[in-house]
Amino acid sequence: MSTSEFLNTTKKKSDDIAFKIIVPLLSLLFVIFNPLSLFAISVLVAILLYIIIFRTPIFSKLFLFFLAATYIFILFIYSVSPKIQYIEFKTTHPSWVEVEGNSLRVDVNWQGGKTRRSVADITYQYRNHNTIVKKIGNNILKNNTYSVFWNSEKEKKESNQKLKNLVETYIQKKNYKILKNPDSEESKLFIPLNNVLLSSSFGDEFLVTVSKVMLVPFFFMLILFFWKDKGFKK
After folding, report:
1. Structural domain of residue 9, as residue ranges?
2. pTM for this structure?
3. Do 186 and 126 belong together in one domain?
4. Do residue 36 and residue 125 come from a single domain?
5. Which terminus of the chain, N or C, has less C-beta within 10 A?
6. Is 146 left (phi over 0), alpha (psi -120 to 50) or beta?
7. 76 with 38, same domain?
8. Phi/psi at 138 (nearest 5 deg)?
9. Which residue intervals of 80-175 are DSSP H helices?
10. Cβ distance 117 to 143 under 8 Å?
């Protein structure tokens, strides 16, 4: 076997492993760790749009790419809309009941590392028959700073205070819902119930990440252009 044939065979095996094993496995994990109802909706929407736009059978690789794009778009809409998240959860958990919450208290902390953001833990109470149940919702809301380098202590305090003021406003306006599983002590706090909220969403983080990925090569090209231009002038 020549070197060229060996390289082609190796490349084919690598592609097979990547596209037939790794990609499907990662896609399956991605679907599992998100609400399955969103994937079901994505499949229905993708089939309908695919037939209308392409007018061909759905049994093709093109449909899989189309389905992936549809699923990501629906996930994005879901992630930036607290109200849709609440409606989706209530629809898929019909037995859960709404309870009246009280004594909501917010505790905001700075989360360092790669994320560099403020996160809000919210303590809430509700009455279950004659018993007062106390719960803590961790990382309910967050305020991303997207700092390129680092954050000063002043910036950290300002970010924490901004998030705390925001959450306290939601609490004062009763812009929240608490749902409880009647068969257990399990409960879930939804705050706020806005139609759109970018600051605490996966969609916002996704857009910023994509922007960074696109901007880094652009700045490198810009630096290279000016460096070459300066070199030519010399």
Report:
1. 3-82
2. 0.76
3. yes
4. no
5. C
6. left
7. yes
8. -90, 140
9. 82-92, 153-172
10. yes
